[in-house]
């Protein structure tokens, strides 16, 4: 066997476990969902074989779930980005190296607690005995915070902010400081240096964090359920209802396929925007 053939064989053997894992737990389940989406609901619920696009034609029936998801998910990801960037910039640029590990650990520590428990805490804070009770004491009665889109957005930012901070921090921490010094030596102001050098070179980290958070939010179920109180439905809530309660598997599968298509389109758009703004030929977000 030649040297090139041996290298190809070793590469194939190293990639085989990951390829089998992806095939069994990603590709095949998605193929099954696509097949289900082309079927019909059985009389007793579940799946009945057929070949029809009626489920996709019925997607507007869940327009409210799509609307809430496509508005609040990008808004939540953008809010996380606007809050995360100054934090990541401070950690990577302003903080001494010996203190960074401690501060990064403080950001990650909330992940040690279940998201369910943290969301329940926000239910109390935003509920009648939390902030509204305090506002009533200062003369602002009947302020409603829980079961609103604002409460869902707040829960999204709180729950997913660390996932946005870390990619941006890594991109800024790896930034070559000599570029900043060269920009200053050439007469650029700190403001100009930030926008022309720092922000531009950190765009891949920003879009990676944005894409990661956005993908997770597209399928979010817990936060809208607890902080939205059944009044702010996401696509994840619709899927749970269709698969577990209504047992309309074909319609739920059609919604799931549409959700995957939306996620792919958003990722491709983010990849192209990042590549164009950063001047790079390719940014690996997929």
Automatic annotation (TrEMBL):
Belongs to the binding-protein-dependent transport system permease family. CysTW subfamily. InterPro entries: MetI-like (IPR000515), MetI-like_sf (IPR035906). The keyword tRNA-binding does not apply. This is Spermidine/putrescine transport system permease protein. Residues 66-270 form the ABC transmembrane type-1 domain. The chain crosses the membrane at residues 70-92, 101-125, 145-170, 209-229, 249-270. It comes from Ancylobacter rudongensis. It is found in: Cell membrane. Signal peptide: none annotated. It is a multi-pass membrane protein.
């Amino acid at each position: 066997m030649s040297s090139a053939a041996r290298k190809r064989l070793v590469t194939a053997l190293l990639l085989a476990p990951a390829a089998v894992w992806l095939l069994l737990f990603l590709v095949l389940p998605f193929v099954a969902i696509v097949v289900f989406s082309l079927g019909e609901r059985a009389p007793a619920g579940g799946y009945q074989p057929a070949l029809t696009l009626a489920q996709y034609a019925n997607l507007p029936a869940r327009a409210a779930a799509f609307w809430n998801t496509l508005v609040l998910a990008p808004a939540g990801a953008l809010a996380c980005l606007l809050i995360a960037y100054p934090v990541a910039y401070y950690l990577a640029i302003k903080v001494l190296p010996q203190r960074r590990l401690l501060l990064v650990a403080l950001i990650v520590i909330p992940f040690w607690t279940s998201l369910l428990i943290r969301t329940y805490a926000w239910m109390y804070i935003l509920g009648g005995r939390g902030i509204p009770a305090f506002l009533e004491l200062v003369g602002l009665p009947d302020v409603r915070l829980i079961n609103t889109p604002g409460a869902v957005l707040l829960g999204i930012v709180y729950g997913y902010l660390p996932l946005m901070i870390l990619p941006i921090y890594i991109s800024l921490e790896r930034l070559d400081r000599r570029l900043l010094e060269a920009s200053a030596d050439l007469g650029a102001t700190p403001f100009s240096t930030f926008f022309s050098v720092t922000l531009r070179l950190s765009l891949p980290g920003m879009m990676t964090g944005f894409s990661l958070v956005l993908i997770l939010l597209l399928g979010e179920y817990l936060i809208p359920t607890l902080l939205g109180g059944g009044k702010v439905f996401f696509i994840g809530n619709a899927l749970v209802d269709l698969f577990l309660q209504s047992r309309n598997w074909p319609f739920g599968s059609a919604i799931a396929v549409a959700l995957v298509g939306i996620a792919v389109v958003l990722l491709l758009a983010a990849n192209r925007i990042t590549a164009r703004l950063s001047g790079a030929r390719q940014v690996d977000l997929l």
